[in-house]
């Protein structure tokens, strides 16, 4: 189980390094590298190699005494092979026969792993972590409708049309705001339940999150359909999401007061950063309900990039880091772990700040920040540096654990034993 988390973290580090290369393309001319295919590799490895694998590993923690079963390990291996295929294939051919094949392989492995997750969480609290897990799995299945729809759309000559982009946004929306966010809440709820919390989130709050996720898909439609009903649906969804976020924040703060000594300080920090990331995302969605702001959000690429990274780096990754901390995979008393977390957090805050600031300047017509691409490249380097530091720390801690286990089950030496002479007769 711990090994799979380290593999997911390695995928995250590779995706972050690719992200820095994408930033560097704006500064230097790098031969043999095409921006869009490399961007596809970056996004697929980050979402499917890091967030998906890490999330599934944590959700399978109770499948057996030692975590994922043999079948789940095989499926995780299939998913990882697909991720490696995406990493190597996308920079070469972008979307082609090979990359589509490995993408389908990952999706099929994901379906089966979701069934494993469903069964592995049967003993979790019905009105809490189990309900959240069930919703996460259902939303994961629903999200893939967008992918399957792309085949008929493209074959029917719909490439580049509104329907084509809606299908992509449908997948991303229900992956990021559905499967990953509900999975993150399920993990934190499960940890709190096993440490004495009766309910982290009540059923009403969970329903608010679910309804808001469905309604806020209207935001993805609003970029091409500027009808008042689309903005109205998104506005209702955002209000419900704000309400759900407020109730979630109060619930987690209540649990924090009760269980403050059960988790390291950095775990609570990561949960706080995760909630802040989700809260900022919701506030931005609320602002987009204003048509003038919506046009700004859709036409300035910085806002789109910042919005996606706020979700993946802020809300989801921070919650996964919190899970690693409470399980002892990151040891918060280690200066290496603290350094890695600090570097990552610093990089996340600075990159988001630079992206949104430049986006506002573009919209105001004030031009670019002097040295913008150099600044963005420099602050982005904090991210892979922090991730690689955490990976080195996690590998070192796992090896220490293997040594400790080996010492506990060390073979018994029989050289000092003697048999009674009567037994030799």
State the helical fraction.
over 70%
**Average pLDDT, all residues:** 88
Number of helices: 17
What is the string of helix and strand elements? Answer: HHHHHHHHHHHHHHHHH
Strand runs, count: 0
Distance between the termini: 52 Å
Largest sheet: none
Radius of gyration, in Å, reads: 23 Å
Low-confidence stretches: 412-425
Roughly what fraction of the amino acids lie in strands? under 5%
Anisotropy-based shape:
globular
> What class do helices, strands and sheet pairing give?
mainly alpha
Layout of helices and strands, plus pairs?
Blueprint: H1 2-24, H2 35-59, H3 70-93, H4 97-120, H5 129-143, H6 145-155, H7 162-194, H8 203-215, H9 218-222, H10 228-259, H11 265-288, H12 291-299, H13 301-326, H14 335-364, H15 372-380, H16 382-408, H17 421-424
Helix pairs in contact: 1-2, 1-15, 1-16, 2-3, 2-7, 2-13, 3-4, 4-5, 5-7, 6-7, 7-13, 8-10, 10-11, 11-13, 12-13, 13-14, 14-15, 14-16
Keywords summarizing the entry:
425 residues; mainly alpha; 17 helices; 0% strand; disordered C terminus
């Amino acid at each position: 189980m711990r090994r799979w988390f380290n593999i997911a973290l390695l995928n995250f580090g590779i995706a972050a390094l690719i992200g820095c290369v994408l930033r560097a393309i704006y500064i230097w001319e790098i031969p043999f590298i095409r921006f869009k295919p490399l961007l596809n590799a970056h996004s697929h490895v980050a979402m499917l190699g890091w967030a998906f694998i890490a999330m599934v590993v944590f959700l399978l923690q109770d499948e057996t005494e030692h975590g994922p079963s043999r079948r789940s390990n095989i499926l995780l291996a299939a998913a990882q092979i697909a991720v490696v295929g995406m990493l190597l294939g996308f920079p070469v051919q972008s979307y082609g026969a090979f990359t589509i094949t490995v993408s389908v392989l990952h999706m099929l492995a994901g379906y089966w792993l979701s069934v494993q997750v469903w069964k592995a969480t049967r003993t979790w609290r019905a009105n809490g972590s189990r309900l959240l897990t069930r919703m996460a799995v259902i939303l994961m299945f629903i999200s893939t409708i967008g992918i399957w729809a792309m085949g008929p759309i493209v074959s029917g000559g719909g490439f580049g049309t509104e329907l084509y982009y809606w299908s992509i946004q449908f997948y991303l929306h229900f992956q990021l705001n559905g499967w990953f966010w509900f999975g993150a809440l399920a993990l934190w709820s499960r940890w709190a339940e096993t440490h004495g919390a009766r309910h982290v989130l009540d059923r009403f709050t969970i329903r608010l999150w679910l309804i808001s996720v469905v309604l806020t898909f209207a935001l993805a439609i609003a970029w091409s359909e500027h009808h008042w009903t689309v903005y109205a649906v998104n506005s209702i969804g955002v209000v419900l999401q704000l309400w759900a976020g407020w109730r979630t924040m109060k619930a987690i703060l209540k649990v924090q007061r009760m269980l403050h000594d059960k988790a390291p300080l950095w775990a609570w920090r990561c949960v706080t950063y995760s909630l802040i990331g989700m809260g900022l995302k919701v506030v931005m969605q609320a602002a987009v309900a204003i048509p003038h702001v919506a046009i700004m959000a859709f036409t300035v690429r910085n806002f789109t990039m910042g919005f996606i990274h706020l979700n993946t780096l802020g809300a989801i990754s921070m919650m996964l880091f919190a899970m690693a901390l409470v399980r002892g995979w990151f040891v918060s008393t280690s200066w290496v772990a603290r350094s890695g977390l600090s570097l990552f957090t610093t990089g996340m805050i600075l990159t988001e700040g630079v992206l949104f600031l430049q986006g506002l300047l573009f919209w105001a017509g004030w031009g670019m920040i002097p040295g913008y691409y150099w600044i963005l490249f420099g602050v982005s380097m904090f991210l892979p540096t922090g991730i690689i530091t955490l990976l080195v720390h996690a590998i070192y801690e796992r090896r220490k654990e293997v040594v400790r286990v080996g010492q506990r089950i060390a073979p018994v030496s029989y050289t000092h034993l003697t048999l009674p002479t009567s037994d030799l007769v």
